Amino acid sequence: MADELAAATEALRLDDSKGEELEEGEIVENPADRPAETKKHPLEHSWTFWFDNPNGKQKQATWGSSLRSVYTFHTVEEFWCLYNNILQPSKLIAGADFHCFKSGIEPKWEDPKCAHGGKWTAQPPRSGGKAVLDTYWLHTLLAMIGEQFDEGDEICGAVVSVRRAQDKIAIWTKTASNEAAQVSIAKQWKDVLDYNDKIGYLVHEDAKRQDKNAKNRYTV
């Protein structure tokens, strides 16, 4: 799937490079002369983008009330069409969260697929500016939807959180007790991002019970 995603992405880029802007009054070529429609490349899973903008004013009791789904995509082409027409994380206001989760899974602790899981969290280095945040987010998305993780079935989705103090990107997984699967995901994610610092895995149940006092279950 990763090879198919790469091939389809390159094909789209080549196709886009051939486009030319028409001058006013210029006649478009005969539709019969156009090449056949580009073949669609279905993804192994459908994915949904979600957006949450609480403006930093919501309390934990009302968390998620501003969360809303944006669009569900099923193919490589749909992903790029959507990605190229939405704001990059660097353009979001502080306090906003952008999620990409497998279709049918809501980015909430209460979702049955997330309830017994947790999340790995990486913090883009501030020295690279906001551009690093955008790069990390894109590479994370491509690795997920391209099925580059050996334990991909464990992955629920990813979230990028824009904050004044420190931006973060997290990958949510299903089974916190499966240490081997979680460590495998963490190691491959760090390779995808070329990330050298340590990342920690926080279990959702621990976060709910202990709030800010919760400790990472695993570290890679």
UniProtKB/TrEMBL annotation:
- A biological process from GO: translational initiation
For this protein, the record's PROSITE patterns field holds: IF4E
Which InterPro entries does the UniProt record give? Answer: TIF_eIF4e-like (IPR023398), TIF_eIF_4E (IPR001040), TIF_eIF_4E_CS (IPR019770)
Q: Which UniProt keywords apply?
A: Disulfide bond, Initiation factor, Protein biosynthesis, RNA-binding, Translation regulation
- This protein's record includes keyword Protein biosynthesis: yes
What GO CC terms are in its UniProt record?
eukaryotic translation initiation factor 4F complex
Keyword Transport set for record: no
One Pfam family this sequence matches: IF4E
List the residue ranges of the region (Disordered).
1-39
Q: Which domain of life is it from?
A: Eukaryota
Any one GO molecular function term: translation initiation factor activity
Which family does the UniProt entry place this protein in? Belongs to the eukaryotic initiation factor 4E family.
Protein name (database record): eIF-4F 25 kDa subunit
Q: Which organism is it from?
A: Physcomitrium patens (Spreading-leaved earth moss)
Task: Please state the gene responsible for encoding this protein.
Answer: LOC112289123
